[in-house]
Amino acid sequence: MTHTQIRVRFAPSPTGHLHIGGARTALYNWLYARKTGGVFVLRIEDTDAVRSTEESYHAIIDALEWLGLDWDEGPVKDGPFGPYVQSARQVLYHTESQKLLEQGMAYHCFCTPDELEEMRSEALQQRESTRYDGRCRNLPRDEIEYRLAKKVPHVVRFRMPDGETRFNDLIRGLITFQNKELDDFVLVKSDGKPTYNFAAVVDDARMRISHVIRGDDHLSNTPKQVLICKALGYAVPKFAHLPMILGSDRTRLSKRHGASSVQEFRRIGYLSDSLVNYLALLGWAYDDKTEFFTRESLIKKFSLKKVSKNPAAVDPNKLDHIDGEHFKRLDAIKRVSLVYEKLLEEKILPAGFRPEEWAGRGTGNGVTDPTLRPGAADEAAYREELPRLAIILKVMGNRLKNLKDVREKLAYFYRDDYPRDAEASKTYLSSPESAARLTQLADRFEKLEPFDRGEIERTTRELAEEEGIKAADLIHPCRVALTGQSVSPDIFSVVHLLGRKKSVERMRTAALESTAHTGRDVGS
Question: Which residues are catalytic?
Answer without folding.
Answer: 255
